[in-house]
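Support request from a user on the community tier.

User writes: "When I paste my structure tokens into the form, the page sometimes reloads and wipes my input. The last time it worked, I copied everything first. Here is what I submitted, just in case something in the input itself triggers the reload:"
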């Protein structure tokens, strides 16, 4: 749950508006390739993992991207 809260915080910072739900959809937030790169970059820094930009498009909600990061952290 802590990972999910941190991921929502990353998205809020990148989009410069409150992302209030783990199911907020990337396209609904008006995401583009630049914001995808920023989400991937800052999520990687926050969690100490490499998040490819493609994963932001393939997992377009904080919840889905959190699940991916959790997989990476679990090894």
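"...and here is what came back when it finally went through:"
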């Amino acid at each position: 749950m802590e990972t999910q809260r941190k991921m929502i915080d990353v998205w809020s910072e990148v989009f410069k508006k409150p992302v209030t739900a783990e199911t907020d959809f990337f396209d609904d937030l008006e995401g583009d390739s630049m914001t995808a790169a920023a989400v991937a970059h800052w999520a990687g820094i926050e969690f100490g993992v490499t998040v490819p930009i493609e994963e932001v498009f393939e997992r377009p909600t904080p919840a889905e991207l959190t699940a991916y990061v959790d997989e990476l952290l679990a090894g």
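Agent notes: The reload is a front-end session timeout and is unrelated to the input. Helices lie at 2-15, 33-47, 53-58, 62-74. The two ends are 18 Å apart (CA to CA). Escalated to web team.
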